C-alpha cells in the first residue's frame, strides 16, 4: 500500500470499535474528559476517530461535563445500572468505588459492557472477555488537574472487529 491516496482512504474508513468507559466526580468539565481521552489515546497509539461511544453508570447520565463532551464529539452515551455493572468481572476492581456507588467498577465495566455485542442476560460473570468478542485495551486510569474541579476515570475496550468485504 505505497500509494498515499490508498492510505488516506483506509484512514478515512477506520471502524468505530473502541468504547470508552468513564467514571467521574460531580462537576467534572468536558475539557478534563477530553484531555484525559487525548492522553490515553496518544499514549496507546489509538485513533480517536475509532471511538464508537462513551459508557458510564446511569447516575451519571445527566452529568453536565459528560453530556457536553458527548454532544461536542457527536458520540452516543450508553448507560448501565449498578446491578449490571456489578456483574462484570474487571481487572481492577476498587473497594472505594464499591462503597460510594455500589459497584467495584464503573469505567472498566461500562467499557466492557458497551463493547459487548452479545446481550449479557444469560452470561456467566466468569465468562472471558475474549469469548464475548471484547478486549480490554486500556485498564482504568484516573485523571485530575490541579486547580480544576472534578476527576475522571477512564478505560478503553475494543469491540469485535467486523469483517469488511473487499472487492
Put the structure in a nutshell.
This protein has 167 residues and is α/β, with parallel strands linked by helices.
* Side-by-side strand order of the widest sheet: 3-2-1-5-4
The value of Rg in angstroms is 16 Å
Please summarize the sheet with the most strands.
5 strands, mixed
Low-confidence stretches are: 7-12, 118-124, 163-167
Count the strands? Answer: 5
Q: Secondary-structure element order, as H and E?
A: HEHEHEHHHEE
Q: Looking at the structure, what is the overall shape?
A: globular
First-last Cα distance: 16 Å
Given the structure, what is the number of helices? 6
Estimated structural class: alpha/beta
- Beta-strand portion reads 15-25%
Mean pLDDT: 84
Helix share of residues? 25-40%
Please provide a written account of the structure.
- Helix 2 packs across helix 3.
- The chain contains six helices and five strands; from the N terminus they run H-E-H-E-H-E-H-H-H-E-E.
- The chain is of the alpha/beta class.
- Strands 3-2-1-5-4 form a five-stranded mixed beta sheet.
- The C terminus is likely disordered.
- Helix 2 links the parallel strand 1 and strand 2.
List keywords for this structure.
5 strands, disordered C terminus, 167 residues, 22% strand, alpha/beta, globular
Tell me the layout of helices and strands.
Layout: H1 4-12, E1 18-24, H2 30-43, E2 51-57, H3 64-73, E3 77-80, H4 82-86, H5 95-101, H6 107-115, E4 134-143, E5 152-159
Parallel strand pairs: 1-2, 2-3
Antiparallel strand pairs: 1-5, 4-5
Helix pairs in contact: 2-3
